[in-house]
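Hi Y.,

Following your request, here is the sequence exactly as I used it, all 459 residues.
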Amino acid sequence: MLLEKIRTPGLSHLSYLIGSGGKAAVIDPRRDCECYVEMARAEGLEITHIFETHRNEDLVSGAPILKELTGARVLHGPNAAGPVEYAETAHEDDEFEIGQLKLEVLETPGHTDDHLAFVLHDTAYSDGPVGVFTGDALFVGDVGRTDFYPDRKREVAGLLYDSLQKILALGDQVILYPAHGAGSVCGSGMAEREFSTLGHERANNPRLQIESRDAFIDFKVEENHYQPPYFRLMERLNLEGGDAAPRVMRPKRLSLPQLGDIEVDHLVDVREPLAFASGHLPVSMNLPVGMISAFAGWFIREGERVALVASDEDQLEAAMTHLVRIALDNIEGGYVGVVPAAAQGKAMRTIPMIGTEEVERRLRGGRDNWTLLDVRDADERAEGAIEGSRHIYVGELNVRYCDLDPAQHYTLMCASGMRATVAAGWLASRGFDKLDIYLGSMGAWKAAHGRSGSGDLLE
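Below is the corresponding structure, written out as C-alpha cells. Let me know if you'd prefer a different format.
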C-alpha cells in the first residue's frame, strides 16, 4: 500500500499518489506529470484513476496529460464554469476502489462551485475513514479563499462553511491531505506544517474557531485577496485541458550577441535581488527564482516571449520549470554571465540601496519630488505603515505603473526588500530611472523603532 505526497516548490502545491493491489490513483496532478508514472511503475502499480478536487486557478492541471500517458479515468466535480473536456463528473457518495483502498466523494463547494473532497478508506478496517483529500477547502491552519465569485460573496462563503462542517464530521482521527501548503496564493494563514488531523484543526485552526455561520461569512467577505491575471488563463486551460509540458526544461543557451539581437517582450533576470540591484542588463526586470510562481503571472501575459538571465544553468532550469507550470512557456532562451558581460564593456544598470537613516532623513526633510512607495499587500499595510508613504501592491504595478510619474524619485519598500526589488526592476524596465530600494524595509524600520514599529513616523 502506497501514499506519497508530491510537493511542487514555488506554487506550494501538494499532489498525491495512492496505490494498492496493483492499482494507483493520483489526486490533483501538476502539468509536468511524468513523475507520477515513474513512481507508480517503480512500485509495480498501474494508474487507473485521476481525481481533481477542483478547477485550479494557480497552476495548469496535469490530469489531461496524465490521462493520455496512462489511459486512466479523470474524475472532476459538477457545476464547473463550463464543461471539463477531459473528465467525467463525480458526485456526492460516488465510490472508487483502488485495490484495498476506497475513495468516497464529498461535494464541498465554496472555494469553487465544482469543489470535491475525497475521503480515503482502508476497506480492511471498517471503523471510519483514514484520511481526506481536501483540495483548497481546508488547509493546515487555514481554509480556502472565497473571492472567485464577487457577485455571490456571502453565498459562497456560506457554502464553504457548510462544506467544512461536512468534512469535520468525518471524525477527529482523519488525516488531512490538502492541495496546498504555506506560501500558496490560495490562502493567507497556512501553517508551515504539512501534516495534521481533523481533530487538530478543529481545536487549533483559527478559521474553525469562528463561532457561527454568520460570523464566518462576515469574516470571509472582509478578507483581502489578489487575483493575478494569469488566474484567468489557468481557469480556461483547466476546462479545455492544457498541453503537455516541454520535454526539455532547460532553455536554449544564448550568447551575449544573441541576447542582444533576440526580440522578446520581457527580459527576466532571475538572480537574487542584491545581485540584480548591483548590476543588471538594461530593460531587464527581476523575478528571483523563488518568487516566479507568485509574481510572474502578474507581469507576463499569455503568449508573450521571454528571455531569461541567470547566475548558472541550474537557475535557468528552475526558472523555466516554474514558468512552465503556469503555462508561461514561450521562452526564447537563457543567458548566463552578467559579470563577464560587464567585463566585455556591456552597459549595466544599478539600483541603489538605502537604509533607515536615509529614509528618515528624507521623510523629515520633506524632500521634493520623492515618494516612499510601499508595495506590500493591504493586510500587511493595515498592521502598520510609515506615515507619508504611498501604497500600491507589487502585483498591481503591472498596470498601475502608469499612475506614477517617471520624473519623480521613488524609494521602493516592502517587508524586507525582496518584493521591493521586484517592483523596482519592473519600473526600471518601464523606463523609470530615479529609483532606489529601502534595504530591510519594514523589518529594518521595526528594528530601529521597536518591534511594533511605533514612532512618530508610523501611521
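The longest helix spans residues 153-168.

Thanks again,
Q.
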